[in-house]
Design goal:
mainly alpha, 3-stranded antiparallel β-sheet, 3 helices
């Protein structure tokens, strides 16, 4: 199944932003999933490796999102990006405006 959760960077960002909830698997589950990978079996839906260790896995709470939910998650990430860009543009605009005011006041006797 092709899912945005198969992309580790997107999955980690969704979890970090709080848009997707995940929990760590127990040590027994970690051993079982590692054995599955060693024998060439696929991991169950909603189970992924963590960034920290190739021997640790995490479980997506609430099951895998539907394609519609995935689309909404991507839109939410884009919204965060747009807010960040808008914040930086506003900050730079205010700094430029202050510089222009200071330059104008320094030229006026």
């Amino acid at each position: 199944m092709n899912s945005i959760l198969n992309n580790q960077t997107l999955r980690d960002r969704l979890i970090r932003e709080g848009l997707l909830e995940a929990e760590a698997c127990t040590p027994q589950e970690n051993e079982r999933y590692q054995a599955m990978l060693e024998t060439g079996d696929a991991l169950p839906d909603g189970i992924f490796r963590t960034n920290e260790s190739p021997y640790e896995f995490l479980r997506i709470v609430g099951g895998m999102p539907t394609p519609e939910e995935e689309r909404n998650l991507m839109l939410a990430l884009q919204t965060y990006d747009i807010k960040t860009i808008r914040g930086w543009v506003t900050f730079i605009g205010v700094v430029i405006l202050l510089c222009l005011i200071i330059a104008f006041l320094s030229l006026v006797p």
